[in-house]
Amino acid sequence: MQTRPKGLAVLQGRCPQCRVGKLFKYPTHKLSKFTEINEHCPSCGVKFEREPRFFDGAMYISYALSVGLFLVSAFLIYQLFHPVSETVYMVAIISEVILLYPLMFRFSRIFYLYIFGGLKFGGNKK
Ligand SMILES: [Zn+2]
After folding, report:
1. Is residue 59 included in any domain, yes or no?
2. What distance in angstroms lies between residue 36's CA and the mean position of ligand 1's atoms?
3. Domains in the chain: how many in total?
């Protein structure tokens, strides 16, 4: 079987150890259940929550992603539409944060697991 490249594994929310099993139980568009994470990798069996409350740390990643989104959005609005009122900035940025929340939630957890999970591709931790 061909190995999935790391970047694709991250984008698809796959297990860092085998790059096959999915981290999340349901697709992102299932809005009532998009937060549910598999306890173990369905493919290699590694435990995703590396320690109790492991994914709490992902809120720092989420915060960084939100700030990045805020800065990029404000810059683009300024460059493309200046002069506009502060209300335009606020409505645009708040709408983006709400609309992109499921993606931000998921990618913050995926990035956190890849960075701090201590899992190596091809390893055999459980
Ligand atoms: Zn796995």
Report:
1. yes
2. 17
3. 1
Q: Does residue 1 form part of some domain?
A: no
Residue 47 phi, psi dihedral angles, 5° rounding? -80, 125
Note down the domain range covering 94: 6-116
Kindly give the distance from the C-alpha atom of residue 44 to the centroid of ligand 1, in angstroms, as a whole number: 4
pLDDT tens digit string along 57-82? Answer: 999 999 999 999 999 999 999 999 99
Is residue 121 situated within a structural domain? no
3-state secondary structure of 57: helix
pLDDT of 126:
85
C-alpha of residue 79 to centroid of ligand 1, in Å: 44
Interior angle at CA 19, CA 16 and CA 23, nearest 5? 65
CA–CA distance, 65 with 104 (Å, rounded to integer): 7
Mean pLDDT of the chain: 95
How many angstroms does the Cα of residue 121 sit away from the middle of ligand 1? 9
Q: With 0.85 as the threshold, say if the pTM is over it.
A: yes
